[in-house]
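Schema walkthrough. Field components (list of strings):
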Amino acid sequence: MKPQEGERERDQDEQQQEEREEEQQYEQALHPVIADLCYHLSRTPSLASSSRNEGDAAQDHRPSSDAGADADAKNAAPRSKRPGLPLPVAAIRVLLDVIRRSRAETMMGLQADLRDASDVMIAFAKRGGPVPIAATTSAAPSTKYLLANRSHIALSSSCELFLNHVTRSSSHLETATPHFQSQLLERGTRFVEFSLSSRDRISSVASPFVREGTTVLTHGRSKVVEAVLLRAARVEKKRFNVIVLEGRPDAGGAKTAKAYDEAGIPTAVVLDAAMGYVMEKVKVDMVLVGAEGVVENGGVVNKMGTFALGVLAKELGVPFYVAAESYKFTRLYPLNNADLPEMGKLDGGGLAFLDTLSWSVNSSSGSKGGQGKEEKKTEAGEDGSLNACADLSSYVVNLSPSVSVGNPPCDFTPAKYITLLFTDLGVLTPSAVSDELIRLYQ
Amino acid sequence: GGDTGGGDSFPAGCDAGSINFPPHYYQRRDDLRQSVMEAIQEMMSELEDLHKNINEQATQHIHAGEIILTYALSKTVGLFLKAAAAKKRKFQVIVCEGAPHFGGHAMAKELAEAGIDTTVIHDAATFAIMARVNKVLLPAHAVLANGGLIAPSGSNMVALAAKQNSVPVVTVAGMFKLCPMYPHEGQDTLNDLISPSAVVDYGLIGDPVLSEVEFVNPVHDYIKPELIDLYVTNIGGFQPSYIYRLLAEYYHGDDWEAFE
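Field assembly_structure (string):
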């Protein structure tokens, strides 16, 4: 045991050293609010509470998708592989820090500070989360996109909710007392804890819908959906199959497939384009997806491909369920996909889907997914995996600049294609969403 | 402390220490018994006036010259139709016989005795007749939280045929049938398979060929909310998409878990 422990300690030291260096890099180049956000995004809740936020309540919930890992494994694992806080919760943590640091003496001043901070974060997210890092391999510093392929909707809605929460709390508090900051912090921290535990609540209302012997189709990489299915398999001990759409261009689906396989759920990964074929062929019993945002009419914004999946499910009579936390509820009202706000726009090379497929799906039967080579960036993609393949040339297509290549990360699925939403407020029909929104924002 | 008359509410063998009730459960309330009795009285009067309140809406939904289709035997639907007839509306009713219990026969007799022009059809003829029907009236066993309906077995077929022919489906039900459950189990929600003796003669079970065959006799059908157009209840008419709002008025959030 001892050599392992020693290694773990050394790993931890190295890791902390790395973290400190990266922090410095972040802080040099970035607005302090963004630096904070990056910090929170990459830390697991337990680490975050020990090092940074002494004021935070010590009882942080781990996201339930970590249910299988124990604390030691979490500390020892390389930082890039461990999931951090969900983006909206990290943002709220940042806002709590803003309250702590704020020198405003009135409610108006504090709200102005909070609003500035959330505007900065939302603008950051809209640009795809560009973080300049001094690359070690090449001479020129390049940009890493922390929030590529994500929508800023959840971030802005959770900031909005938090601001509302602060405003509402303040009407009960006397602004001039010295205790008001700590009271606000206490309420804010409870808000964070409520949000962190929402995944557990969602998985407990949603897992009864996963029935024994059924086949579930899912799309994209949603921690909430993972929590639901893993609970149905591990806690409720049900036997069911999962079909995962691979989820180009970030291989989100393929990554979740690993998690399901580790839990012993029979999993299949198929091409995104195969969604219709597989729904009929394998007789899918339900579709379950997560959401980037839930809009006022009960529709959802989610990874590109969800709209097609929804229409298809309706046509084939398959129930379409969405699992989302309540802080993703936003006061947008898009009528169709043309109404979606611009999101995650990346300049230049980002995640153009033709050339940055830096993963391959290998199963023991030898079937391989598409393989690509990163042409523009020398550092690894989000997952840190860079696959070099002997024969890449047949997979890489070089187009002239006159061909526009578009890759918006999200699309909008209208409410009429959604059967039910599983949220931490309970199971909701799409028509109930607007009621809950009103209640949340009151 | 306080009143220990409620001790019977704990299931036998249940460890009282393991249940955590909120603090106000343990406070003394002088008006406790009075409030509970009033609430029960309210429920009883709602149930007593049930059919009266539902039937007040009969003439809003049943018009002269209409052909109404209903399924098998239901007291609520029967009273609804008779109330409309009592207000001198002239309409026709087609009753599906509702195999294997054949409740439709008794229903037709009742309606005919009230002077309503009634026809009995067998269940398989439903789709063929649907093109001539103006409205479908269905009874309810339970109304689910998503607006879905649990109705006698065979009603789903009627609702599907109605959807295909763009015939409005109206369900007549008291609000006490509202249930904070979701159809987790699809057609098996709140359902039972009863003895198939009504479906196949018991003496034939020994037959070498028939013994390989499975005979199912479900009591209820689950009908999706998209197939129902209106719920006529003692507190008014509602769309299935509105049912979730009524749940909050009838059930406390704490009681929902009892249904899971």
